[in-house]
Amino acid sequence: MISVEHLSVEFSAKPLFTDVSFVVNDRDRIALTGKNGAGKSTLLKIMAGQQLPTSGSVAVSRDTSVAYLPQVMELADERTVMDETLLAFDHISDLQADIERMQQEMAERTDYESEAYLSLVERFTRAEEHFQMLGGLNYHAEVERTLMGLGFERTDFNRPTRELSGGWRMRIELAKLLLRKPEVLFLDEPTNHLDIESIQWLEQYLQQRACAVILVSHDRAFINNVTNRTLEISCGRIWDYKVKYDEYVRLRAERREQQLRAYENQQKEIADLKEFIERFRYKPTKAVQVQERIKQLNRIVPIEVDDIDNSALHLKFPPCQRSGDFPLIVEDLAKSYTQGSYVIAHVNLTIRRGEKVAFVGRNGEGKSTLVKCILGEIPFEGSLKVGHNVQIGYFAQNQAQLLDPELTVFDTIDRVARGDIRTRIRDILGAFMFGGEESDKKVKVLSGGERSRLAMIKLLLEPVNFLILDEPTNHLDMKSKDVLKEAIAAFDGTVIVVSHDRQFLDGLVQKVYSFGGGRVREHLGGIYDWLKRPTPVPSREGGASSGLYEKNERSEALPITGERGEGPLPSLTGRAGGESSYAAQKAAARQRRKLEKAVEEVEAEIAQLEAALHLVEDQLSTPEGAADTSLYERHTRLRTQLKEAETRWLEASETLNA
Length: 658
What we know:
The protein has helices spanning 40-47, 81-86, 90-108, 115-133, 140-149, 166-179, 196-208, 220-226, 245-280, 287-299, 367-375, 409-414, 425-431, 448-460, 478-490, 502-505, 527-531, 551-556, 582-620, 623-626, 629-657, and strands at 2-11, 14-24, 29-33, 55-60, 66-69, 184-188, 212-216, 229-234, 237-241, 328-338, 341-351, 356-361, 381-386, 392-395, 466-470, 494-498, 511-516, 519-524. The chain is α/β, with parallel strands linked by helices and 658 residues long. The longest helix is centred in the last third of the chain and has 39 residues, at 582-620. The protein is flat and about 100 Å long. The relative contact order is 0.09. Mean pLDDT is 80; it is low at 535-580.
């Protein structure tokens, strides 16, 4: 599909990578990896046609469509969410206009036997077949399913995009790319603005539907679940591994050991040659041998070794005072920003000293609101008690804006470091990608991501006993995340982590609080215990089953509205459904199981129909298939069946969620 040949890129006469060649095939799911600054995003832009290389070429096979999602983009804001997403189907609208124009022309012309008229009929037939192959105008159900899979509610569809944050607007752009169904998807950090539920939905989409994917991501769980091939940019070269990321890490460690042995042997050989040359340089009887050694030395190509990783670097939080046994007790807490509209309500939780817990849930469900209540930044209803001698350290996205812009990176950390840690400031900065000259930069010239990393280092060195971290991994590469995770795991204080990074939370937290529907629920165990608990139900219409609510929890949920709805604060007099008889509960459970089975059966049917359609479209793309009229009939029939199945799926999902 795509062939990269002898690609080289230089910035200010400094080579980023040289003579890179590889091929991207159909169904390849490639993770592009390498240290920050190695050229991952640059290579992605070049392959997507957004940037030109210094030399070399990228050849894309004919009729191969590509789509590119950058980390940052300029977004329009004069449309609604639905109207903006429907722009993904502009090419279908243009094709429909061409068909209508040709219909009108055929109706007006009378030269039915002429070559021009027959050519017009042939063009019309091809356009009509292509229009039906693309699904015609029957794409609204798929648009709704994609938007809801990425976290939107039906009530959001008519909201102006200017009301949304950058993260939600980025989701619209991602939805548009997916709906265009390109043969090759280029994704640069696609999970940065997604919650766990939406990340899982995107994983399933890329696994089941995408033709070829090349992505840059620091979410290890995401790339392990999506990719089957890893391309590493290192030492200006491309190393191609036909394996998932975790297997690549093992193979890379073995390769580096081989590089080190080869490098050491080469250095010994060079030292021996130099010693011989220096020893016999001025002896006439050894002149010939000396010249041979000089030529041999000049012919040696230096062996490059991958950058030394600092995974062995261990950070420890400085000693801090012991807090009380219960740093946080929350009872019947509720918060509303407008009259009658509650973001969270009836929140009851107790966190013990030394516990490490995770706050998870979709964006906008109240995680940051509860954190602000804990910090005392906003008023609330109910009771919230911070324990004796609790010293809170808080990391938020705007934390980076509080740094002194006139200080250097090194000075910023030097001012908070205490004791032996001051002798290791350079090592710590290197672990967080501020090695060498980077540590002498002033804060005011750093990017937003670099400031966030610096703020995280600063927090790591402050003497606190209660950490609250809001999305701490958004701007960290995998090595830095490992260093941070190890430091938090060894921290003997209490930690609340708000994060969508499953791999980061795995093994770190012992308790999960899930936010959804205005409620906060406690789940004992780690993040994967929460994700894998039995029989989760869809958390919204058409969305993937993420496990935000278990069956019994959904039946007990109080009729409360979240940020997007309005309604009174519900009563606490008993659980919903508590007056139902046992027989009625059993009947309701049977009905739910029946509906869930119906949804699963329709989803399986849709998957089979899509696979059959993909096969027919592959056949139609060949010269022989294009001449086979029965294939077009089969394609139209499959499209009709798929549309009917999607309608049944939507009806069944709505009934289940009701």
